[in-house]
Amino acid sequence: MTALPLVFDAPKRGLPPRHLADLSTEERRAAVTELGEKPFRANQLSNHYFGRLTADPAAMTDIPAASRTQLADALLPPLLTVVRHVSCDDDATRKTLWRAHDGTLVESVLMRYPDRTTLCVSSQAGCGMACPFCATGQGGLMRNLSTAEIVDQVRTAAAAMRDGELGEPGRLSNIVFMGMGEPLANYKRVVAAVRRITEPAPSGLGISQRSVTVSTVGLAPAIRKLADEKMQVRLAVSLHTPDDELRDTLVPVNTRWSVDEVLEAARYYADTSGRRVSIEYALIRDVNDQPWRADLLAKRLRKHLSQLVHVNVIPLNPTPGSKWDASPKPVEREFVRRVNEGGVACTVRDTRGQEIAAACGQLAAEG
Ligand code: SF4
């Protein structure tokens, strides 16, 4: 059995200085007042950052130059610098590798579809969950990202869409917390980031809560806590297999919270939020793709979640040099057919970005 290198509370070391996007509306006013400025300057700053999507003090001409410098120095420290962008799918997918103030590398992926544009954000640098098939999991956890480091990934993507960096100008509509890291292991900052992302401008970025998905490998108590936040975000549980024996090795945190415990917590989330839970299932050749596992998956999901669930099968994006591979298409089709036949809605997730190493952690791992 895999040892559990689980780190739920990463050291605060390396977190960037305080930023406007770390703060609630009231905290922003207090911070501005502490600097000897009028409280309404907090609204002006927020308007620029969340409303106009700029962090450049030179663009904030409604604020006197002296105040601008002081406010920007104190509340808009540079957070993430682009190391490089890599595009594919005819430029409809763009992955960005960022460098944080302490040299930490993180990544986000912007995906443009005909009816929506989705950003996949990272919530931690690295990950402590040690899933053996995942590039990020191999490097361990470097540190949590701050709330503002998460929000800033979204702000820059929203600006890129507005400015037509991925074709025709458009709007960033959906956010998925499926990049590097286990979002619920950085709970407080992730929840604050969701609030910033979804509060209407100028308090936040004005994206609908219903268009935000928070994924987890199954930290059951944190799932229940998230339900009690009474937000409308979608929950996605990375289950990857319905049986504890295999899940103990595929998702080592399973030795702490079993499949039953995770699915009961997911049920609580579905009941509290009124939203269907997504079950993520990375289909891995000869590992978790057997017909009997499809049947067992449908059975267990029906028992715990009834109709309040949808399964996304994800063809595994193999990491270079890894023994893990995607299942052949006929095996995948049969798996999906059986889950549907078992009374649970199941589809194959469109996989974007294969040729640019867009599985979580691959770009950062390449450096
Ligand atoms: S699959 Fe997700 S939870 Fe598991 S190690 Fe990778 S990033 Fe972490």
Automatic annotation (TrEMBL):
The main place the protein resides is cytoplasm
> Keyword set for this entry?
4Fe-4S, Cytoplasm, Disulfide bond, Iron, Iron-sulfur, Metal-binding, Methyltransferase, rRNA processing, S-adenosyl-L-methionine, Transferase, tRNA processing
Name the PROSITE patterns on file.
RADICAL_SAM (PS51918)
Pfam families for the chain: Radical_SAM (PF04055), RlmN_N (PF21016)
**Catalytic residues?**
107 (proton acceptor), 360 (s-methylcysteine intermediate)
Is Iron given among the entry's keywords? yes
Q: What else is noted?
A: Reaction proceeds by a ping-pong mechanism involving intermediate methylation of a conserved cysteine residue.
Report the protein name in the record: Probable dual-specificity RNA methyltransferase RlmN
Encoding gene, per UniProt annotation: rlmN
